[in-house]
Specification:
Number of strands: 12
Order of helices and strands: EEHEEEHHEHHEEEEHEHEH
Bound molecules: zinc ion
Radius of gyration: 18 Å
Strand order of the largest sheet: 6-11-7-10-9-8
Structural class: alpha+beta
Largest sheet: 6 strands, mixed
Number of helices: 8
Helix content: 25-40%
């Protein structure tokens, strides 16, 4: 195992053994791979078969465990490699409910462990923001330190953070559940004010995490964490702009290796 003695990026303890930490959870790679040998990987404008997992020396083992506890919960409600998802039954969702004119449905989120999901979301986005290898895609500005304090259990989920959760409604049988992406930051404008959205897709759940003082009130009312009647949304993901972005990225990429040979 790769390890060195340094400062943990999360708890800031000095002279501790630092682990090779995953940015996207290890289990996500396993479920994306499914029964095939390897994963179609997109990095820096190239798509190819690859088994490479994005890891970096970041955290001490106590902090790895803090994150791991929440990751295990999120795994239990995410889609698995067979396309099964415990949340469908848990949230009493009928597959195909989002097949309406708006292409979206919603269910009450209260059966879910919202705090674990919020922690997991913030942890993936924060890890991507401090990762050297994955840098450039996520920019948190002053919120990087606020999220670090939250993840280190010094403060509660920040007031200026807002989370929307979209589950994949699998009625179209597209294997969108077998995708995991690194987070990306986009700047949205609403009523002449800017708000930053950091989002990623992991095993059939799309996480949209907003940070800032100008989050539109309609998003605040729907926030998975802060709202008293919190909801999760369901969509086939087919129509979501996130999928358009992924398709665009893949179609513009260079195909190499065995994938290019059609294997
Ligand atoms: Zn630590």
């Amino acid at each position: 195992m790769n390890a060195k003695i340094s400062t943990c990026k999360l708890c800031l303890l000095d002279n501790v053994e630092i682990r090779d930490s995953h940015i996207i959870p290890k289990w996500a790679y396993k479920e994306v791979r499914g029964d095939s040998k390897d994963i179609v990987n997109h990095t820096k404008g190239v798509v190819r078969y690859s088994d490479k997992q994005l890891k970096e020396l970041l955290l001490c083992s106590a902090c790895e465990q803090k994150i791991g506890r929440r990751e295990n919960y999120v795994k239990s409600i995410s889609f698995n490699k067979k396309g099964e998802c415990n949340a469908i039954k848990l949230l009493n969702f009928n597959i195909g409910q989002s097949n309406n004119s708006e292409q979206v449905a919603w269910t009450d989120a209260s059966p879910l462990d919202k705090q674990s999901i919020a922690y997991f979301t913030a942890s993936v986005i924060w890890r991507a923001s401090i990762s050297f290898k994955g840098k450039g895609q996520v920019s948190l500005g002053p919120y990087q330190e606020i999220l670090r304090s939250y993840l280190n259990e010094e403060i509660i989920f920040p007031k200026e953070a807002n989370l929307l959760i979209y589950f994949h409604d699998p009625y179209k049988e597209d294997p969108f559940y077998q995708i995991a992406t690194l987070p990306v930051t986009s700047k949205l404008s609403s009523k002449n004010r800017y708000v930053y959205c950091h989002q990623f897709l992991c095993l059939g759940i799309l996480y949209k995490f907003f940070l800032g003082k100008n989050i539109p009130s309609e998003f605040q009312e729907l926030c998975f964490v802060h709202s008293s009647n919190s909801l999760v949304f369901w969509t086939s993901l087919d129509q979501d702009p996130t999928m358009d972005g992924i398709r665009e990225t893949i179609s513009g990429a260079e195909v190499r290796g065995r994938l290019a040979q059609g294997k």
